[in-house]
Amino acid sequence: MDDAGKLADRRMRMVEEQIVRRGVTDVNVVAAMRSVPRHLFLPPEREHEAYADEALPIGHGQTISQPYMVALMTQVLRVDVRKKILDVGSGSGYQTAVLAEMAGEVFAIERIPELAERSRAVLDKLEYDNVTVVVGDGTVGLPEQAPFDGIVVAAAAPEAPRPLLHQLADGGRLVIPLGPVHREQMLTVFTREGTGFRRDEEVYCRFVPLIGEEALGGTQGDGAV
To answer: Which of 35, 65, 90, 92 is catalytic?
Structure first.
């Protein structure tokens, strides 16, 4: 088996052992995780670790998320081909690619230009023509492209940034880890219901801190911002 075949085999085993066995049941999410070559989104010296069950450094103090967490966040976001999604803190572009496999249109925003440039190159190489990568402050979102049917944030904040909540379409979902920096956080889902928001908690997790103008959030509890 050549190197490409070995990597593909490791990817299939990753999906079965790290994702399916842990309860990810959305068949489209599972198919997307099988399709996207995670190793391409890592620095070359890290490619051999691509299908490990962990987050990995990608430079600039950032990480590529654990595969299970990418799958879980995508599942609770409830993505389909009719939806427009915003990926905040897109980093390596791996989560963006998984979303692009399922959504109609994906906007990825990353504050570090070098990471945005690298991810854009990989996404272009993989011929995702439904993705736009933007350099900017993800905490303020992309108001010119709103509303979004789903927003996923790959960094932790004390509370959900108000601009992201208000850029959700009615029925849209924001998935974000909430809690203290460098400690355990709670993966939280906000669903827009008219002028209010329902808040649901999923699982404990650990992410790098969200950085930006609105990183301190602004929600005051369930249904109020």
So the answer is: 65
Mean pLDDT across the chain: 93
Within a domain: 213: no
Answer yes or no: is 13 within a domain: yes
pLDDT at 222: 36
Q: What is the mean pLDDT of residues 78-107?
A: 97
Residue 90 is among the residues annotated as catalytic for this protein: no
CA distance 71 to 32: 9
Q: Which tokens is 131 given?
A: 């993705």
Residue-number span of the structural domain to which 145 is assigned:
3-205
Among 54, 52, 67, which residue's Cα sits nearest to residue 10? 52
**0.85 surpassed by pTM:** yes
Of 37, 146, 9, whose CA–CA distance to 85 is shortest? Answer: 146
Question: Is 188 within 8 Å of 210 (Cβ atoms)?
Answer: no
Question: Residue 28: is its pLDDT beyond 90?
Answer: yes
Q: Please state, in angstroms and rounded to a whole number, the distance separating the CA atoms of residues 81 and 200.
A: 24
Preceding amide of 143 cis, omega within 30: no
- Give the full edge-to-edge strand order of the sheet including 196-205: 131-135, 105-110, 84-88, 148-153, 168-178, 185-193, 196-205
Residues β-bridged to residue 153? 88
**Chain segment 104-139, per-residue pLDDT in tens:** 999 999 999 999 999 999 999 999 999 999 999 999
CA 213 remoteness from chain centre: 20
CATH number at residue 19: 3.40.50.150
What is the β-pairing status of strands 131-135 and 148-153?
Answer: unpaired
